[in-house]
Specification:
34% helix; seven-stranded parallel sheet; binds D-galactaro-1,5-lactone; alpha/beta
Length: 271
């Protein structure tokens, strides 16, 4: 299959490209001008800004599918999120319409659900609870993708990525949210290769014992994670304790929730 990878020089792009390459897919990879990237055998590299429709046309020409990692990937000033997440996604899906692209694998995020309490176990149809503007852009992105399936027949696998750092878990939260490298590779390959997915959300984490998601629920791509952050639990317990943060400990989104949080005693009276 001919696959475009965006954000190819980022953490997720770098880690997932070999999986698609080794599976025999023909890769065209993009990132912003100035990024350094070494091409894999047969891979074509292209630099430019996906907010520019002319670059989107050049990138999508002849592609069957897109793995879209490019985005602002944490909480930032709203105008930046608006440009790199909302606007870029609009340009990409409009480009997909122009070029007859069959499927987009979309990097959604656990932060679209980050205001759920850590005591909850979510199923795939759980209500969105964004924890910041970045998380909110992922809610918008999932709904945009669902709309493009229904109105234009462009399929999307929405990967609700937990924590992928290409490292073992670094704290207690990551024992729940961790995604291991082998599972990431399986996830991306199945997202591209599964037949007929329509609009399909999938939790992008490993089979973590402490997962906040019901990983026993079947998903449309047949993703079956094999790694579990729990094997690192002892090592995590031995780390120096992180500074206490009652808000972060209460919500799945962790410190993304604490950022720009108004303490209860500073809120409008009666709130
Ligand atoms: C995300 O969505 C971010 O892109 C990533 O940098 C991590 O912070 C991750 O979530 C997380 O929740 O750990």
């Amino acid at each position: 299959m001919k696959v475009l990878i965006t954000g190819a020089a980022g953490r997720l792009g770098r880690a997932s490209r070999p999986a698609l390459h080794d599976a025999g897919h023909e890769l065209r990879s993009t990132d912003l001008p100035g990024t350094t990237l070494e091409a894999l055998d047969g891979e074509t590299l292209l630099t430019g800004n996906l907010c520019d429709p002319a670059f989107v046309d050049a990138a999508l020409q002849g592609m069957d599918a897109v793995v879209h990692w490019a985005a602002t990937s944490n909480e930032q000033a709203f105008p930046l999120v608006l440009e790199n997440n909302h606007r870029m996604l609009f340009e990409l899906y409009e480009g997909a319409r122009r070029h007859g692209v069959r499927r987009i694998v979309y990097a959604s995020s656990n932060h679209a659900f980050g205001l759920h309490a850590v005591t909850e176990k979510l199923r795939l149809d759980a209500p969105y609870r964004a924890d910041c503007f970045y998380g909110l852009s992922k809610v918008w992105g999932e709904e945009l993708a669902r709309m493009y399936w229904t109105k234009h027949g462009i399929e999307t696998v929405a990967l609700r990525i937990g924590t992928f750092m290409n490292l073992p878990p670094r704290n207690a939260r990551e024992l729940s949210s961790w995604l291991g490298l082998e599972d990431l590779r399986q996830l991306v390959r199945k997202s591209v290769e599964a037949s007929r997915v329509q609009f399909a959300p999938v939790w992008g984490i490993s089979a973590n014992t402490r997962a906040w998601y019901d990983m026993s629920e079947p998903n449309a791509i047949g993703y079956l994670p094999t790694q579990d952050a729990e094997v690192f639990a002892e090592a995590v317990a031995a780390l120096p304790p992180a500074p206490a943060d009652a808000v972060a400990e209460r919500f799945q989104g962790g410190r993304f929730v604490t950022q720009s949080w108004t303490p209860e005693d500073s809120r409008p009276r009666g709130a």
